């Protein structure tokens, strides 16, 4: 009897994935996105576990700190272009404007590539000027991190183009699966051959993995490109795209600050070992938010299309359904961390990281709020309200930095986690208010109207 019920449910699920309607597209994209996110999250956690054990808290702290620093320095290189490519690609496809599609891809690629190279040169000069302030391991790690930046940025542009074309799964493969998967493979091979890895060597392998992932993503985008767009003359809207990219770039910058400020400032007040332990807690807490991230990949182009076609009722139903899905995935992860945090850390990464259990719980609770508030940022950025998104994130970033300055000297890792979680609550509340005011949409999981049918 139970087998028959399970079979019936499976058949209903298969029925929902068939066809070209909105619901079928969302179900297919949602299921695929969840699978890719799960697989990518598993690979990322495997990388964390392997590196945390192989490098130790201090070595992993150097790697994590340099990666956070380069993520901050790479803000100008990204310039908000991945989000712009998603939005403009979706619009161009909806209007069959193939000249604009070709134009935005070329324009974004040239701008991002040029800015990445400029960043590498400036970063190298700064490192050379302050050579005496860093260890040889730190400088070598930083140098390879600068090489990593172009691969990361351009790969995200390729993924944005694929997602804008509604190839949600393919759009996530280069950055979420191929890059961490290749890095894991390279590190395991290095451990097998040499028995050990260094922070600089690991960053070099990361740069190689990012380059190969970019190449694979470019092939996927070439194959997914609509046939009608091939051979058309590109049309460029330099001023309009630059005007949109500026606030989107500011948004990306504020997001990086909100996600990396705690690690960077913890490194200023404590040692590399504490940074390594805290980084493991941060990565663990990301499990709580993976549902929201997976959902956002699917709904972003749909939000843009619904807004362009003035379908506010559908937009509300989709916002509610996506927020509830994200929250449903987040709750079990939080419960696991609250109940089994210390034992989990001891078993997975070793006893040297057990002191990260409390920060892990604090960060997980903050991510729970993040999931329950829904896709606030995506709603604003995909409906031409990126400036409101930018203001909310800026206020959150200012609070984040100030809170870390106060709380880290008092409570170390716990203070950093508390500052970050408080920031999640503040900026999500601000952005949810902006969504309600500008779109008439309740972005949270607690809206009573009937969800998408």
Question: What are the key terms here?
Answer:
mainly alpha; 453 residues; 15 helices
- Overall radius of gyration: 22 Å
Which spans have pLDDT < 50 for at least 5 consecutive residues? 449-453
* Succession of helices and strands: HHHHHHHHHHHHHHH
Number of helices: 15
Shape: globular
Q: Quick one: how many beta strands? A: 0
- Mean residue pLDDT: 87
Helix content: over 70%
Quickly give the structural class: mainly alpha
Task: Provide the domain count.
Answer: 1
Distance between the termini: 28 Å
Portion in strands = under 5%
Largest sheet: none
Question: Could you characterize what this model shows?
Answer:
This protein is mainly α and 453 residues long. It has one domain (22-439). Helices cover 84% and strands 0% of the residues. The protein has 15 helices and no strands. The chain has helices at residues 2-16, 22-73, 75-78, 81-94, 98-129, 136-164, 168-194, 199-224, 238-269, 272-308, 312-348, 357-372, 376-381, 386-411, 413-439. The chain is globular, with a radius of gyration of 22 Å. It starts with a helix and ends in a 14-residue tail after the last helix.
Short précis:
84% of the residues lie in helices and 0% in strands.
Secondary-structure blueprint of this entry?
Blueprint: H1 2-16, H2 22-73, H3 75-78, H4 81-94, H5 98-129, H6 136-164, H7 168-194, H8 199-224, H9 238-269, H10 272-308, H11 312-348, H12 357-372, H13 376-381, H14 386-411, H15 413-439
Helix pairs in contact: 2-6, 2-7, 2-8, 2-9, 2-10, 4-5, 4-6, 4-10, 5-6, 6-7, 6-8, 7-8, 9-10, 9-14, 9-15, 10-11, 10-12, 11-12, 12-15, 14-15
């Amino acid at each position: 009897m139970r087998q028959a019920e399970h079979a019936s449910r499976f058949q209903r699920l298969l029925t929902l994935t068939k066809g070209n309607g909105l619901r079928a597209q969302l179900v297919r994209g949602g299921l695929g996105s969840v699978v890719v996110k799960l697989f990518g999250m598993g690979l990322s956690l495997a990388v964390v576990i392997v590196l945390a054990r192989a490098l130790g808290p201090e070595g992993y702290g150097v790697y994590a700190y340099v990666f956070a620093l380069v993520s901050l320095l790479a803000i100008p290189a990204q310039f908000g272009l991945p989000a712009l490519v998603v939005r403009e690609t979706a619009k161009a496809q909806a209007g069959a404007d193939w000249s604009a599609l070709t134009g935005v891809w070329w324009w974004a690629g040239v701008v991002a590539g040029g800015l990445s190279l400029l960043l590498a040169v400036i970063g190298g000069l700064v490192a050379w000027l302050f050579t005496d302030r860093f260890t040889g391991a730190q400088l070598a790690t930083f140098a390879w991190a600068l090489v990593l930046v172009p691969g990361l940025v351009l790969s995200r542009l390729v993924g944005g183009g694929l997602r804008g074309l509604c190839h949600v799964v393919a759009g996530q493969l280069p950055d979420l699966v191929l890059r961490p998967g290749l890095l894991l493979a390279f590190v395991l091979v290095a451990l097998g051959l040499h028995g050990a890895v260094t922070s600089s060597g690991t960053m070099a392998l990361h740069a190689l993995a990012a380059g190969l992932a970019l190449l694979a993503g470019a092939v996927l985008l070439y194959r997914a490109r609509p046939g009608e767009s091939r051979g058309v003359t590109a049309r460029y809207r330099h001023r309009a795209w630059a005007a949109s990219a500026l606030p989107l770039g500011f948004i990306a910058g504020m997001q990086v600050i909100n996600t990396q400020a705690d690690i960077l400032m913890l490194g200023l007040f404590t040692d590399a070992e504490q940074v390594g332990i805290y980084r493991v807690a941060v990565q663990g807490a990301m499990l709580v938010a993976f549902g929201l991230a997976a959902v956002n990949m699917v709904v972003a182009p749909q939000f843009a299309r619904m807004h362009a076609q003035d379908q506010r009722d559908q937009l509300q139903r989709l916002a509610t359904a996506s927020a509830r899905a994200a929250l449903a995935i987040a709750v079990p992860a939080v419960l696991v961390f609250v109940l089994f945090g210390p034992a989990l850390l001891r078993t997975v990464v070793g006893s040297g990281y057990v002191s990260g259990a409390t920060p892990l719980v604090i960060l997980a609770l903050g991510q729970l709020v993040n999931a329950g508030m829904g896709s606030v940022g995506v709603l604003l950025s995909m409906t031409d309200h990126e400036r409101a998104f930018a203001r909310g994130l800026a206020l959150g970033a200012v609070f984040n930095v100030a809170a870390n300055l106060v709380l880290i000297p008092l409570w170390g890792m716990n203070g950093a986690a508390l500052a970050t979680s408080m920031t999640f609550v503040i900026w999500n509340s601000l952005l949810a208010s902006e969504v309600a005011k500008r779109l008439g949409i309740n972005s949270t999981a607690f809206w009573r109207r009937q969800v998408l049918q």
